[in-house]
Structure formats: structure tokens, C-alpha cells
Amino acid sequence: MIAPGPTLTLQATADGRSAVLGGCWSAARLAEPANWARVTQALSDCATGQADSCHWDLTGLSRLDHTGAQLLWNTWGRRFPAQLSLEPGQQAMLERVARFTKPAPRPARVSLTALFLKLGEGIWVTLDHLKGLLRLLGQLLLDLVKLLRAPRSGPWRDVSGNLYHIGATALPITALVGFMIGIVLAYLMSRQLRQFGADTFIVNILGIALIRELGPMLAAILIAGRSGSAITAQIGVMRVTEELDAMRVMGIAKGFRLVLPRAIAIAIAMPLIAVWTTAASMTGGMLAADLVLGVTPAFFFATLPDAVSIGNLWLGLGKSVVFGLLIALIACHYGLRVKPNTESLGQGTTASVVTSITMVLLVDALFAVVFKNVGI
Amino acid sequence: MTEPVVQIDKLWSVFRAAGRDAVVHQDLDLTIRQGEMLSIVGGSGSGKTVLLRQILGLAHPARGSVTVLGEPAHELGREGAASRVGMLFQHGALFSAFSVQDNIAFALRELRTLPADLIYDVAMVKLQMVGLDVSAACKMPADLSGGMIKRVALARALIMDPPLLLLDEPTAGLDPGSADEFCALLKSLHQELGLTVVMVTHDLDTLLELSTRIAVVADKHIIAEGTAAHVMAQPHPFIKEFFLGERGLRASALLQTVPKSA
């Protein structure tokens, strides 16, 4: 059963013109593009010329809703036309619309001053973020001291749970990505090395690149995307559902119960995952080297200790711990700043991942400069 | 006699929980006619909200059928559903990323034909119809009080003037003053707009003040339906407990003293 669409017919009568409305003047029917075009055209025809000389007849309508009434009211210039016939229900609806229609406020104009002030606001927000991060770091250090003084009261269950979620469940994906990168790197390098007959140097290149740089870095980027976003979203939802407030009311410190276990778990898991990723990528590289260059795994293992000094491994591990702490702190920071609405939650999670990956890359560059004499 | 707005026929609602089926409704029949203000009452976990979700098409009948406005309920959710059914969720369910004005206007905007100024006017009329001031239009849901959230949610539910309005605990979480105001608002809207209203409520005051008919859900059935006096006369333990317990007596005593003092 479909009600007939809205119609408006203009008739010439003895004492002027008459606009006869018919059909269903409801929002859903009016919004059908064909109906809308027809009705607005007819309305503008009626409204032009001597609007008051037109007699409006609403009695033939099968249905009028507030959107339809509003449309008529706006067409009439927000006052009742001189000649109007309608039913009591329609009268009441139109009167309600008349009572509640107010002129729309003028939209605020964007001026140069406002743009300038917005820039300043941006700077303040950035400073505020830095302050928040610094405070979080300080709190983390204080909490660590507290933990060392009373290790038994630590949130160890949370630590082990997070360790599983951040570390153990990340093993398959990090292994896969590492393996692929190892193959690609070995394959591309081997073609270059073969030109110079320096086939055996594949061990040096893969060893240094993967152990010192790519292993820890890949692991950090994957964990930032995987666990950083999860931490931000988790803490953010706790903010939205007022769980953070509930914790505070119970006198449970969120730094000690939320930030500390995640930071500890990620600081433990990160170097382990870095080693795991490195191992997977070395396996991939070794396989590719064997296939393309004929460098056997036995030779690979024999030369690796000479090609890559142990310092590189320690450097990679050390970097990983720092990366992990950075990711945890940034993720918690953005999670705690989420405002209680869905949009802020999405923005916070995005900002958390983008910031932590950027910071990981920046800090990695810093490590490269500072430790340029180590291991090479 | 007019066609019923909602027709529930031999409805079974079944949930699978922990490997076994939990039957919430069993051969439940209910007919809701146009212009009624029907309250659904029942104990916690008796399946009142599930019944509401069945009417909305959010839950699927395991057996039986739910017909709303002449169509199966599960077809209700397609495009343009806002012009057929309005729902006031218990906690408002406002879109937290939108301002009040955008929340109310959302369904109209989604039609993508109507001009922005018309939509603005319609939204402002609805905002004031539910008793809010125009100054609230630009606020975000997070900045609103509980009563205001309910009002904005009601305005959003009514934006396309649906003939059927469903309310889940309309006065839960409101202080008595706000609850009374909200009841008065619902009553006046019901009269002015000729709505059919179905509500789930625990609040006896709301129940006795608003409803033209009461349906009691217990033991997986509607065990009684009719006017308040008729329902209260039924000898079921839940009804005795609910209406004739201490709270019930207090509420109905209040209801009887109101006309005398007025």
C-alpha cells in the first residue's frame, strides 16, 4: 500500500487563483527527487506574483507532517496567507510550526584573526601533549620505584595478560613480515653483489641490516600498529564508559594499574619480538641467498659471527626496549586524553599509531647517530 | 475497526547462551491498535526489551511472526525506516560525534534532497516541541544532562513524524521532577500527533499515568492485558507483587488522591 505522492495544482478560479494540495506531504515522500523537483517548482509558481491573491486549499491532503508544514510555512513567507482552507489538525500543526520557527543564526565568518588564533591554539595543544607525555613518564618512573620497593603488590596479573596479548599473539604476523622482508632484501642485494663478484658479502649486508636496523624497526612498527592502537582504544573506551572515573573513586591509581603493567609488558616483549623478527628475516634471507647465489646456510652460519660483531645485537635489543616504552607511553597518553565520544576515540587511536611510528623512526635515527662507532 | 499497528502472532524468541537455548517468549500474542498508549511491564529478564526489539526488527523471531504497519518487522530497517517507527532508547543512543541539532536532523539529511535551511527549521521545531531551548542546538551529547538527552533522543525519534513510537524505560534515570515533566510531554505529544506509543517501563507512576492499556509479560507469555484496573484484578503472583506491593499501593493511592485535591 503506497500513498500517492505530494501534488500541487494551480487553478484559475473566479476570484483569482487557487492552489490545491493533494496526496501525502510527508518528509519521506517529499524527499523523493522527482516529487521534490515537481513540488518546489509548483510552490515557486504559486508564491510568485500576488501571493496573497492565491487561495490555498489543504483540505484534500491525505497526510501532512511537520516537514511538509514547514515547507508551506517557509513558502508563505512565515505568515498565514489571506485565503486558506484547512482542517483543524492541520491548523494545529501549522500553528505549532509557526510558534517554533525562529530565524536561523548567521554562521560565524572565518577571519584572519581567527586563523591566527587557531595557529596559536595548535601550538598550545602540541605543548600540552608534550607536557602530558612528560608527566606520564615521570609517573611511570615513580611507579617503578614504588614497584621495586614492594614487588609483591605489583599488578603482575595485568603484566602477564598484557605480555600474552602484546607478545605471544604477535608472533605469527611478525614472523611472516620478517620472513618476506628477508627474502626481498637478499634477492635485491644478491643481484647487485653478483656484478662485483662479491657474493659472500651478502652475509655482512643481511647481518648488519637485519640485526641492527630492520629487525627491531619492523617489530616496533608492527607492535605500534597492533598493540599501540589496542591500548589507546582500550583506555579510551574506559574513559567513555566512565571506568577510569570509577577506578579513581575507588582510589586505584591509573598510572600504577593501567600504564605500568602495559609499559613493563611491552618493554619485555619488544626485544623478544625484535629477536624473533630478526631470526625470521635472517631465515628468509638465508634461503634466498642459497637459491640465488648458492651461499649455503652452513657458510652463512660460519661467517656470521665474524661479519657482525655482537655489539650490533646488543644495540638492537637496547633500541627495542626504548621503542617499546615509547609505544606504550604514547598509546596510554592518547588513550587517557580521549573525550567521551566516538569521534575522539577514533582520532585518538589514529594519532596514537601515527605518533608512535613517527617517534620510533626519529629515535632510531638518533640511535644511528649516537652509536655510530658501535659494532661497525 | 482500524488495522492493527503491531500484530504479534505466536512469537517465539530464543537465544543460544552457553550452548543451550534459552526461551524468552513462547507462543506470545499481542495486538496493538492505532492511537493506543500501551505499556509492557514484567519482571527483570522477562523479555520486555526483547519484545520491543522484536517489534523493531532488531531481533528475529525463532517461530511465529511480528507484523508492524502491515509488513514483517524485519523488513522495517530498510531505507526510510525513520518515517515509520521512532525509537527512544533507554540511554538515548545519541550519536556522540554529532551536535544536538545534527542528531535530530540526521534522518532528514540522509534523504539527501531537502535543502539545509528547511531541515534546520524542522529540527528546531522538533527541538522546541520536546521542551528544549534553541540554545541547546549546538551542544554535544556529552554536555547534556540525563533529562536533556532523553528529550533530544525523543526529538530525533519524532523527526519524520512516524506513526509508531517505541519507548524503552522513558523515565529511568530521571529525577522525579524531570520524570513528571517527561510524562506530561509524552502525553501531550501522544494527543497532539495521534501517535501509537508502545513503552517498556518499571516506573509505576509513569505506567498508571500514561498508559491506555497495560500488557504484563511473565512466564514467556502475555499473562494479562487491559486497563490498569483490569490488570490489577488478575490473580497472578507477579501482578500482586508488582501492583499491590507496597510501592504499587503508594502509587495508586497517589493516583486516586490527585483528582480530589485538584
Q: What is the rounded Rg of chain A? A: 35 Å
Tell me about the biggest sheet of chain A?
A: 5 strands, mixed
Overall pLDDT level of chain A: 90
Number of strands of chain B: 10
Topology:
The complex is a heterodimer of chains A (376) and B (262).
Chain A: E1 7-13, E2 16-25, H1 27-30, H2 33-47, E3 54-57, E4 61-64, H3 66-75, E5 83-85, H4 88-100, H5 112-149, H6 156-166, H7 171-196, H8 202-240, H9 243-249, H10 254-293, H11 297-307, H12 310-336, H13 342-370
Parallel strand pairs in A: 2-3, 2-4, 3-5
Antiparallel strand pairs in A: 1-2
Chain B: E1 6-17, E2 20-32, E3 37-42, H1 48-56, E4 63-68, E5 71-72, E6 85-88, H2 100-109, H3 116-129, H4 146-158, E7 164-168, H5 176-193, E8 196-200, H6 204-210, E9 213-218, E10 221-226, H7 228-232, H8 237-244, H9 246-261
Parallel strand pairs in B: 3-8, 3-9, 6-7, 7-8
Antiparallel strand pairs in B: 1-2, 1-4, 4-5, 9-10
Helix pairs in contact in B: 2-3, 2-4, 3-4, 6-9, 8-9
Structural account:
- The complex is a heterodimer of chains A (376) and B (262).
- Chain A has 376 residues and is of the alpha/beta class.
- Chain A has 2 domains: 7-100, Transcription Regulator spoIIAA (2-Layer Sandwich); 125-370, no CATH class.
- Chain A has 13 helices and 5 strands.
- In chain A, strands 1, 2, 3, 4 and 5 form a 5-stranded mixed β-sheet that branches.
- In chain A, a hairpin with a 2-residue loop joins strand 1 and strand 2.
- Chain B has one domain (34-62, 72-261): Rossmann fold (3-Layer(aba) Sandwich), CATH 3.40.50.300.
- A 6-stranded mixed β-sheet of chain B has the order 6-7-8-3-9-10. Chain B has a 4-stranded antiparallel β-sheet with strand order 2-1-4-5, covered by helices on one side.
- At the A-B interface, helix 1, helix 3 and helix 4 of A face helix 3 of B.
